[in-house]
UniProtKB/TrEMBL annotation:
Coiled coil: none annotated. Residues 24-278 form the EAL domain. GO terms for biological process: cellular response to nitric oxide; regulation of DNA-templated transcription. One of its GO terms (molecular function) is cyclic-guanylate-specific phosphodiesterase activity. This is Diguanylate cyclase (GGDEF)-like protein/PAS domain S-box-containing protein. It comes from the Bacteria.
Amino acid sequence: NAKYAGGNTFRFFTEAMNLSTIERLRLENALRQAIANNELSLHYQPQVELTTAKVLGVEALLRWTHPTLGSVPPSRFIPVAEESGLIVSIGEWVLNEACAQARRWRDEGISGITVAVNLSALQFRRSDIVAKVRSALDRCALPAGMIELELTESLLMHNADDVMRTMHELKAIGVKLSIDDFGTGYSSLAYLKRYPVDRLKIDRSFVNDVANDPDDAAIVRTIVQLGRSMKLDVIAEGVEHPAQLDFLTMEGCHSAQGYLFAKPMPADQVTPLLYGKRDPGGNGAGVANAA
Ligand code: C2E
Ligand code: MG
Ligand code: MG
Ligand code: MG
């Protein structure tokens, strides 16, 4: 932050800091209007079961299109939203929108899928998160099991008792819980045993080189085996190449997500891929499910 140092000198205020501060403020101010101006939307990326090629669910990923800034990637605006606290209201919007979309899919006869929603640490630590999740489900009359909440590993390392209580309350509602970007945090395996999580998402950074780098291969193999022995589902993210898929399949990884299968897409483009999950009696021909 700029410190006025007397005279006309702003000490510590380099041009780079100046620019990034202005950039940050500009994004923050723009983001403040984003919900009201309908600039936010969700894309959905399919999650595929490896043994059957069925689409088991989708991950909801936030998109922001500003009238003059254009499309701003999450890697730029999520940190700003987190530092400014805006992520709390934005995250609530995401939760409600994801539930509304899950409701629309159910109304179209699609069942048995999960819709995963990313929760930021700040959102999770707010005392009203459990009530917010419950009311989002209630508003859409949605079975809780249709929603999965993705938590980051770093979140689990702090305030262990509070985190544990919140996780148990969320599990009691019936939502599923997963650990996102697994392996990138300060891994203490002790918490895995204690926290009521349903699945681990192997971070893309390990999947990238899994077919060539023996270290990455060992890490992925270890996470898959860990999941198996702790009865947790394991999903690999960022699968782009057939060689990565082959490795994951060979190691018995349960499911995967990545450009090789599908990019994140607007709901209407994802819907045809979900028809394989229709209720018996539904007339959808399974696109990703042509067994
Ligand atoms: P994430 O939760 O780990 O999401 C996966 C990211 O990997 C997404 O980036 C997705 O588009 C990207 N991805 C998926 N498959 C591939 C692939 O095959 N190759 C490559 N190169 N990338 C792939 P995205 O949508 O840009 O989101 C980035 C991060 O922003 C997310 O990482 C998540 O941490 C955060 N984020 C996105 N939406 C939300 C949200 O609604 N709430 C919160 N709190 N965070 C969000
Ligand atoms: Mg995620
Ligand atoms: Mg992830
Ligand atoms: Mg990731």
